[in-house]
Amino acid sequence: MAQNKSKPKRQSKQRPNLLQNKGVIAFYEVNKSIISTLQLPLVLKMITKKACQIMKTKGCSLRLLHKNRKELILEAHYGLKNRSYLRKGNIKVGESIAGRVLRENRYYIIKDLFKDSRYQHNFIARKENLRSLLSVPLVHRLKTFGVLSIYSESPAYFCKEDARLLSMFASQAAIAISNARLYQRARANYLGAIRFLANALDAKDSYTAGHSEKVAEIALKIAAQLRLSELQKDALQYSSYLHDLGKVGIDINTLRKQDPLTRAEWETIQKHPQVGAEIINNIEVLSNLVPIILHHHAHYSGGGYPDKDIKFDQIPIGSRILAVADAYEAMISHRPYQKSLSAEQASSELERCSGTQFDPAVVSAFKKAQQQQGSN
After folding, report:
1. 197-375 domain in CATH 1.10.10.10?
2. Distance separating alpha carbons of residues 30 and 49, to the nearest angstrom
């Protein structure tokens, strides 16, 4: 009698373990984006890109609830063609898939976008060749404020486990977005207070009104050419507004004097970077600006003030940029003790002093920024 040989059991895929592993990766990736930047546009771009990479899908979109709480606005996308996808415009809460996800606060899986009537933009799906969709809500502190959606070119591509994974990812993404928004609001308030202080300082002398604002504008254009990080740009912008803070105690008659300064007056002027740095050093949240402000009158090849020995890369990059921006703005502005130069004359003077007073790389970046502005 033949023995009944039972068929070996089919090994099931360990989706829960896979889900757990992918979930850990998702948490790591989003947390890494939080650490690397708090700039909201960059955070949103990172989220859509990482979602595609982790879920292995063609495209991703991220919509946030408008302040009127009636519409979802497309804030970031990855892997989708700009023109066709952007034609969707804003989506009203409760309409299409994203609007339903937000209103009902639950995920939606659409197996075939070509056929599902709930999806209002089938023609775009066909043009982009998007066959299936998974959308999950973005929730933070029990408030649903957006929708994260991923798309596949294959029909019926997503399952419940994918929805669980994307929801895990979305929970971390929601924290990243909320943190970036908080930073954005805090930065705006912080920057507003610094600008108010800078304008108050500039107003002390009618000839320097708006000087700090103009220096900051020039410095940021140079920083963009040199591809400085967002944190470096923030420090540079704040330093530009406060670089002359040390002049607060200098007699206005000395600052406006048309005749040559006496030795004592010149020594007082030369102390203003140190005085400003000392004031800033007493404000903990601004202490990272101290080196930039202290050395913004240092000469690239040595000399300058207040420290004559520091040179080349020993001088912070922010100080080297600020030196060029400050000098250029001063040269093109009328002062009681000097006539203003034309933009061309001031640029030529920067080039003449490149390698001695100014960092050649910074002068070159300044010239590129000026050329781009002239071509626009």
Report:
1. no
2. 11
**CATH 3.30.450.40 at 17-182, yes or no:** yes
Dihedral sign (CA 99, 100, 106, 110): negative
- Give 16-53 as a DSSP string: HHHHHHHHHHHHHHHHHHHHH---HHHHHHHHHHHHHH
pLDDT digit string, tens, across residues 135-150? 999 999 999 999 999 9
pLDDT of residue 338: 74
Mapped to the 3 state alphabet, what secondary structure does 206-250 carry? HHHCCHHHHHHHHHHHHHHHCCCCHHHHHHHHHHHHHCCHHHHHC
Q: Where are the domains of the chain?
A: 17-182, 197-375
* Number of Cβ within a 10 Å radius of residue 289: 27
169-190 per-position pLDDT tens digit = 999 899 889 988 988 888 788 7
Strands, sheet with 91-92, edge to edge from the N-terminal-most edge strand:
91-92, 71-78, 59-65, 143-152, 132-140, 108-110
Report d(CA 349, CA 247) in Å as an integer. Answer: 25
| SS3 assignment, position 135 | strand
Token digits of residue 203: 């107003």
Are the C-beta atoms of 221 and 369 separated by less than 8 Å?
Answer: yes
